[in-house]
Amino acid sequence: MEPAPPAPSGRPRVAVLVADDRPPGMDGIERLADVRYVREPDLAPALKDADVLFMWDFWSEALAGAWPDGGGPGWVHIASAGVDRLLFPALVEGRTAVTNSRGIFDEPIAEYVLGLVHCFAKDLHTTLRLQAERRWRHRETERVAGARALVVGTGPIGRAIGRRLAAAGMRVGGVGRTARPGDPDLGDVLPMDGLHGALAGADYVVLAAPLTGATRGMIDAAALARMRPTGRLINVGRGPLVVEDDLVAALRAGTIAGAALDVFVDEPLPAPSPLWDLPGVIVSPHMSGDVAGWRDDLVRLFADNLDRHRHGRPLRNVVDKRLGYVRAPDPSDPSDPQRDDQRGQR
């Protein structure tokens, strides 16, 4: 699937959906394309004339309602790896190419997950709480080396997480779309229908899967009941992978020992949510991959794809719209653009 040809002038018309801020470092792109920055109220008319949509505001859910009846731009690029907000029927069934920003965030997220594992094992969140209360309470902590981690999701983020955890001495397994024994990053990978069986053997369950019809709500009461009472859940994927009410009930009942959540069904997490106050829960505001320079990296990735678009070359990170993720690269094909940058996704 290729995007529509650029405008007759040879300068593609690029609509950039923004919210509070514009993407940095756009000067080079503006020299090569006719760029129009729009907010949600002006998105619909902009789509009628655009060859390309750059969804800088990747939180927006306005695209489905603004999409023209006769079809929109030939190519939509989103500044995140998650594309669940884009997969509405008119776009999925049309000829528009969709690309994402896989290749930016995997190592930062993997570092974040490793930090969370250490935080739980060494009880650092309790130490900080006790320090704030000026209380001296000695405790024994846990070893990280030798603990078992189950990584759910075998894309670049999941693979980076597996490598980091294994390097720390953990025993790593995976769950993905297909079974794969002896994976170099994730050990023995089980298919998704083997998830419940694998949960009982894990000290840490790390969610790094995309949000699809098959993964939505996969961590529910039944799944949580299969986890160890000492187990912890870490979610850096998408909030709706977890049924939050079931997680709250499991934490209150002691079914599992704790959870570290970087993503939620509703973001920002509403103030009344019990997740803020439950013991053993770490809440972070969807920041696991946001390290210094990430916005510039996002623009550079889009600029590279725009150059490919202008010169008729295959785009990187083309999403299979039916499945909701970028297909795996062909390791035997050095010209496969999906191999260009396997550094991760958000």
Automatic annotation (TrEMBL):
Keyword field: NAD, Oxidoreductase
Superkingdom to which the source organism belongs: Bacteria
Region Disordered, residue ranges: 321-346
A Pfam short name: 2-Hacid_dh_C
UniProt domain D-isomer specific 2-hydroxyacid dehydrogenase NAD-binding: residue ranges: 115-288
Protein name: D-2-hydroxyacid dehydrogenase
Compositionally biased residues, Basic and acidic residues: 336-346
Organism whose genome encodes this protein: Actinomadura yumaensis
